[in-house]
Write a structure and sequence with these properties.
Layout: H1 2-8, E1 17-20, E2 23-28, H2 34-47, E3 54-57, E4 60-63, E5 67-72, E6 78-80, E7 83-85, H3 92-105, E8 111-117, E9 124-127, E10 140-146, E11 149-155, E12 161-166, E13 171-175, H4 178-181, E14 182-186, E15 196-202
Bound molecules: 2-oxoglutaric acid and fe (ii) ion.
Fe (ii) ion (FE2) binds next to loops.
């Protein structure tokens, strides 16, 4: 449905709020102007303490296909995919971005997970962001820098798919029941592409 709107409806350019079955999301392609987005991208590449995390699978350590970092004010450790992260304190850039996205998201975030996809071989596979610490109907705000990547949603009962291309400087807010009914992923691509950084702001209870 949203795909049809994008091509058939002249208002599509200004439409930012999308209601799908069992969830809704906001997508603002030009949330940050190019100059600001470039500045943040460079600062995040240079200053974030990126880590190669790995996970134990059948007795072997397997590297995640991306670099990660965890920042925020909450010192409760956060667990996902079998690893536990303790947050670094907010950096100036992260606080600035957080302040810019909160009015549009309608919540105050206390942490952010950062993912760095070095090339098309890096990815994140089907999952939900529905960990216990995030509570019922979590609001997750995702900010994107660098290379454009496909972001896919799949309804867990009907199999329906929605696909977005997340642009440099864009904001995606996932909300409502979405995390309880839809999985999402950023698939690998064979295209020769440069780096991408994604920030997902969250509220840890
Ligand atoms: O890179 C993205 O756009 C998504 C990242 C994500 O789903 C996550 O960190 O949970
Ligand atoms: Fe996610």
């Amino acid at each position: 449905m949203d795909q049809l709107d994008l091509f058939g409806n002249p208002e599509a350019q200004t439409k930012t709020h999308f209601e799908i079955q069992n969830g809704d999301y906001i997508y603002v392609p030009d949330f940050l102007n190019k100059k600001k987005a470039d500045e943040y991208f460079q600062a995040l590449l240079d200053k974030i303490e990126w880590k190669q995390e790995s996970m134990n699978m059948y007795g072997r350590q397997i590297d995640f296909p991306r670099l990660t970092a965890w920042y925020g004010e909450n010192d409760k450790p956060y667990s996902f995919s079998g690893i536990t992260l303790s947050p670094h304190p907010w950096s100036n850039e992260l606080l600035e971005i957080k302040n810019r996205i909160e009015p549009k998201s309608g919540v105050e975030f206390n942490s952010v997970l950062l993912n760095r996809y070095r090339d098309g071989n890096d990815s994140i596979s089907w999952h939900t962001d529905a960990e216990k610490e995030l509570g019922q109907n979590p609001v997750i705000a995702s900010v994107n820098f660098g290379a454009e990547r496909k972001f896919q949603l799949k309804h867990m009962e009907t199999g329906e798919k929605v696909e977005l291309i997340l642009k440099h400087g864009s904001l995606l807010v996932m909300k409502g029941e979405l995390q309880h009914f839809w999985k999402h992923q950023v698939p690998k691509t064979k295209k020769k592409i440069s780096e991408r950084i994604n920030l997902t702001f969250r509220v840890i209870k």
